[in-house]
């Protein structure tokens, strides 16, 4: 079979793919455009791109999210798709770091001391995570790992999820009622998969119910209505907001930018400039260990597929 590694420019990925190709000499591997590819290994694939490969039988993606793939078109053409389990423990660690940074005013105090040489004693009180009432939206692997990290802080944890899951006692309670989950919560973690049902699942009314709480988004930006979030931050409905995923990405963003240029802002609104907001540029899995795990997971699946053929 011909395996085309499309846009896999990450040094770790290319090293591992070359090693894999050497160990599987019966198949041809290439990183250059190959219209006769039987398999494409990539982090994104549009409907138009799918049409470029008439012999395509399978797509392998070293990522968890499917939003950069024309999944319906792949299904229509009966092309098999393979994704990875990811590294929920690392994503959850980043979520916890965001929560501690915004609740503890770490980012704000760091900025004040570096930019204004200010000790900020007039605004130095911060909120402890210890004993906080927490809501985790999404009881999957990432949500469960966040819960396990919150346990040493003696948090009271409610999980929201529409699906019935075996959660192994990770949460104090679970509910399929979003408003029930967020009502009274002091810190809310958004860890839901983005799909038609969860798009803008957090809107104006939900943000009003979060008044005085901290919202941490570690999943996908579009879970939260962008305009409603702007209002909630600027009118102090939220005590704080922290996020790793954003609404706009630079054109050259490594995992497929959506912007027209490289100096785009993370949102069309400027709420992200607020001192009560902590931003990271979608780096929740940007560790060397995570990248090794990602490529290992997808190459194991590719090896099984090639051997079965």
SSE map:
Elements: E1 2-5, H1 11-23, E2 28-30, E3 39-41, H2 47-50, E4 58-60, H3 71-76, E5 80-82, H4 88-103, H5 106-115, E6 133-137, H6 141-150, E7 156-160, E8 173-175, H7 178-182, E9 187-190, H8 204-209, E10 214-217, H9 226-234, E11 240-243, E12 277-279, H10 288-308
Parallel strand pairs: 1-2, 1-3, 3-4, 4-5, 6-7, 6-9, 7-8, 9-10, 10-11, 11-12
Helix pairs in contact: 1-10, 4-6
What does this structure look like?
- The protein is an alpha/beta fold and 309 residues long.
- Helix content is 32%, strand content 14%.
- It has 10 helices and 12 strands.
- The protein has a 7-stranded parallel beta sheet.
- Helix 1 links the parallel strand 1 (2-5) and strand 2 (28-30).
- Helix 4 packs across helix 6.
- It starts with a strand and ends with a helix.
- The model has no long low-confidence stretch (mean pLDDT 93).
Please tag this protein with its features:
309 residues, elongated, 14% strand, 12 strands, 5-stranded parallel β-sheet, 7-stranded parallel β-sheet
Summarize the structure.
The chain has helices at 11-23, 47-50, 71-76, 88-103, 106-115, 141-150, 178-182, 204-209, 226-234, 288-308; strands at residues 2-5, 28-30, 39-41, 58-60, 80-82, 133-137, 156-160, 173-175, 187-190, 214-217, 240-243, 277-279.
What is the oligomeric state here? single chain
Residue fraction in strands: 5-15%
Q: End-to-end span in angstroms?
A: 9 Å
Number of strands: 12
Task: Kindly provide the radius of gyration, computed on alpha-carbon positions and rounded to a whole number of angstroms.
Answer: 21 Å
Approximate helicity band: 25-40%
Tell me the strand order in the biggest sheet: 8-7-6-9-10-11-12
Flag low-confidence runs: none
List the helices and strands in order. Answer: EHEEHEHEHHEHEEHEHEHEEH
- Describe the biggest sheet? 7 strands, parallel
Count of runs of 4 or more consecutive helical residues: 10
The overall pLDDT average reads 93
Shape call: elongated
Secondary-structure-derived class = alpha/beta
């Amino acid at each position: 079979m011909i395996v085309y590694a499309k846009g896999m420019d990450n040094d770790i990925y290319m090293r591992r793919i070359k090693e894999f190709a050497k160990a599987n000499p019966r198949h041809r591997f290439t990183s250059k455009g190959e219209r006769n590819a039987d398999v494409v290994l990539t982090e994104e694939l549009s409907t138009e791109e799918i049409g470029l490969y008439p012999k395509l039988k399978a797509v392998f993606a070293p990522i968890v999210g499917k939003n950069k793939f024309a999944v319906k078109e792949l299904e229509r053409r009966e092309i098999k798709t393979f994704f990875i389990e990811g590294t929920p423990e690392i994503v959850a660690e980043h979520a916890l770091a965001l929560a501690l940074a915004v609740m503890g005013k770490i980012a704000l105090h760091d900025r004040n001391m570096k930019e204004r040489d200010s000790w900020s004693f007039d605004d130095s009180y911060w909120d402890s995570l210890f004993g906080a009432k927490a809501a985790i939206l999404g009881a999957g692997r990432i949500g469960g790992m966040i819960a396990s990290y919150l346990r040493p802080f003696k948090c009271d944890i409610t999980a929201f999820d529409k699906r019935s899951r075996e959660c192994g006692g990770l949460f104090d309670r679970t509910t399929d009622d979003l408003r029930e989950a967020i009502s009274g919560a002091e810190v809310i973690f958004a860890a839901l998969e983005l799909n038609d049902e969860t798009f803008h699942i957090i809107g104006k009314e939900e943000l009003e119910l979060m008044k005085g709480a901290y919202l941490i988004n570690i999943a996908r930006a579009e879970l939260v209505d962008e305009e409603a979030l702007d209002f909630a931050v600027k009118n102090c409905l939220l005590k704080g907001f922290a996020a790793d995923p954003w609404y706009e990405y630079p054109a050259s963003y490594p995992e497929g930018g959506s912007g027209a240029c490289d100096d785009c802002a993370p949102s069309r609104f400027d709420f992200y400039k607020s001192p009560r907001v902590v931003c990271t540029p979608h780096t929740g899995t940007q560790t060397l260990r995570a990248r090794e795990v990602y490529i290992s997971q997808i190459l194991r699946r590719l090896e099984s597929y090639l051997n079965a053929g």
